[in-house]
Amino acid sequence: MKRWIWAVLIFLVAGVVGGYSVAHYHEDQLQYSRNVVNGQTAIEQSNYAAAENYFSRALTKKKYDPVANDLFEQTKKFVRAESEFKSHEFTSARIDYQGVDKYKKGSKTLKERAKDKIALIDKIKKNVKKFNKQLEEAKKMNAAWNFYGSNATIDSLLSSAEFKKNYYETLYDQAVILQRFNNAGIVADQSAFSDDTTPDNGGGSSSNQPSIAPRYRGPGPATAPSTPDKKASSSSSSKKSSESSSKAKDESSTSDSKQESSSKDSSSKSDASSK
Description:
single chain; about 280 residues; mainly alpha; rod-shaped
């Protein structure tokens, strides 16, 4: 009788424990499945932080599950690639996007998005080379003082909708700065050219004003060196000679008059004495 009672009790305890274990297993399985599904839904909504959290919870229910593990690691790699892409670290971002495709049991959505980003990075790198080449040409023209040609190239860049995207913000800033230098150079050239070709109405430039060396001197009549006027010089010399001769004649005439007067006075005195 006692043996029978003990057997029944053991059977009941085993049933309870077994039932609890089975129920707990089914509960864990249910939570695991819910977390995986919720994580995949979060990926579709581009809520990657929530997706990582769901996949992490799924792994607490099935620690070494390959599906949850691949989804979790794949999502982390995609999030890191996205961060690198936003920071314009395109080389490292491309490597991580390529890694997203290696998870066999991962999300197909993440794989497709990673492929799209790889194609975009390749396009950006190609455009960077093209835009950089145009910018270098504009810099060379600026160095050669061809400000109008440099600005024409920069205007072409700045009018491009693609060039205005934040992927090329460093090149865009360089183009804007170079355009300002070109505009300043154009204004300086116009001012220097105007100062150099304005007629001098003041009878000569002031010695206190600094001389301006314009970058471009427009074509103008050549100024012949001044030469003395031979006729004017001869006339002036002749005039001076005539004046000198006339003066000598006047002086001679005056001297003769004085001598004649002196002779008359002497004669008058002699006549008076004889009488």
